[in-house]
Amino acid sequence: MPRITQAAALLSTVSLAITQIAAQSCPTIDPAHAPVMATGYESRVVLNGLKSPRHLVFDTLGNLLIAEQDQVGIRYVKLTDNGGLDICAESSEVIIPDTTLNHGIDLSPDGSILYVSSKTDVYAYPYDAARATVGTAKHLITIPDQEDHVTRTLTISRRYPELLLVSRGSNANIDPGTTDIESGRSQIRIFNLTEIGDEPVPYTDGEVLGWGLRNSVGVTENPVTGDIWSVENSADEVARDNVDVHQTNPAEELNYHGNLTGASPVHGANFGYPLCVTAWDPSAFTTTTAPSLTVGTPFVIGTTNDTVTDEMCQTETTPPKISFPAHTAPLDVKFKADASAVYIAFHGSWNRDSPDGYRLSRVNFTTDGFPIEPSDSSTAEIRVMTNQNNTACPDGCFRPVGLAWDSKGRLFLTSDATGEVFVITGA
C-alpha cells in the first residue's frame, strides 16, 4: 500500500475511534419512580443525588445552574450532550455554597449576571460560564423575614432586561395583613436594576405588578408578546358559611399580568386573596351558600357580610385566565419558544384525602397570546408526565418543581423529593 494511502487509512481509523468515543451513550440512571409519559413525549433522568433541587436555568454555554434548597446553594452542572435524550452530567460542583439560598434563580439575558434569592434577600453575582465561577455578590433587595411561604421566585425580563420580578407569598394560609398593599406580601413586584445603587433596597420599594396573590411561585414572560403570567398556589382548609369545601376547592390559578410598560389594564391589579379565591368544583357548594358559582368564578372565603360579598370578588378583583384542581401546587410555568403553550410543574397536594398533582402539564395558547380554552374551562390542562399511582404520593412519587428549556428545545424538570433532573423531548 502506498505510504500516503497508509497514512490516510490510519487517520481515518483514528477519526473513527474519536467519533465512537464521543458518541458513547450516557449511562442509564433509573428514575426513583418511573413516570408515565403522554403519547409523543419521552423522558430520561439526567442527574440524581441532589438535595431538594428547585428552580434551574441554562447559561449561554448550555450548562445547568440549579438552586438546591436543602442546605446547599447554587450548583453548576456541565453536560455531555449526545443528542435527544442522551444527556448526562459530565461534572457537577457547588459554585455558591450559601445554605440560605433556597429557590430563586435566573440569569441576565447576556448570561453575565446570576440572580439568586433567600427568604430575606436577593443577590446578583457576576458569572463566567466558561470558567464556572462567580464574582463578588451585590446585595440588591432586602425582604422582611417570615415563617410561611419562604421562597422568592426571580424572573428577569428578556424584553426589558433591566427589570427584575420578585414574587413573595403570604405568611400564613390566610394572611389578613395582605389586604393592605403596603404589607409587601402575596405580591409580585418589579425592580429596575439600573436604579439600585450600592445599598440594597427594601422589597416594598418595588413597583407592584400584582397583589392579592397568595403564593405565586411560578412566573414567566411570553417570549412573543412580552406579557407576564404566573401560577398561584391558593388557600388550604377553605370553608364557606360553615360548609367544608376544601377537598376540591379553591382552584389553583394561571394569572395574566399584562406587559411591563404599565399600559395594561391589569398592571398592578388585585387578584383577591385573602378575601376572595376561585371555584374549581361548584358542586361542593350548597345552593344557599353559593348559588351561582362556575369553574373559575371568584367567591368569598368563610362567611359573607354586607361589604364582603361574592359580587365584590367578581367585580373588584381580577380572576384567573385558567383554573386547575385544588391543592395541586403549581411551582413553575414556562412558555415554549413559539408561545404556543405553557408547561406547568405541579408539585402535588397535601390538603386533600385523595392525592392530586405530582405531574407536568401543558396549556395550549392562541397566536394572540392567551389560552385556547375559556376561563371557565375544566379541561385546559393537558397532562404530559404523571406518576404511575398517585395514591402512593407524596412518598412514592416524583414531585416536579422547576422547568427550563435548553437551546435545542428540550425541557428540563427538577424533582425535589427524589433529587432528580429529567430531560423531556416531544414538548
UniProtKB/TrEMBL annotation:
<protein>
    <recommendedName>
        <fullName>Pyrroloquinoline quinone-dependent pyranose dehydrogenase beta-propeller domain-containing protein</fullName>
    </recommendedName>
</protein>
<feature type="domain" description="Pyrroloquinoline quinone-dependent pyranose dehydrogenase beta-propeller">
    <location>
        <begin position="35"/>
        <end position="426"/>
    </location>
</feature>
<keyword id="KW-0732">Signal</keyword>
<feature type="signal peptide">
    <location>
        <begin position="1"/>
        <end position="23"/>
    </location>
</feature>
<dbReference type="Pfam" id="PF22807">
    <property type="entry name" value="TrAA12"/>
</dbReference>
<dbReference type="InterPro" id="IPR011041">
    <property type="entry name" value="Quinoprot_gluc/sorb_DH_b-prop"/>
</dbReference>
<dbReference type="InterPro" id="IPR011042">
    <property type="entry name" value="6-blade_b-propeller_TolB-like"/>
</dbReference>
<dbReference type="InterPro" id="IPR054539">
    <property type="entry name" value="Beta-prop_PDH"/>
</dbReference>
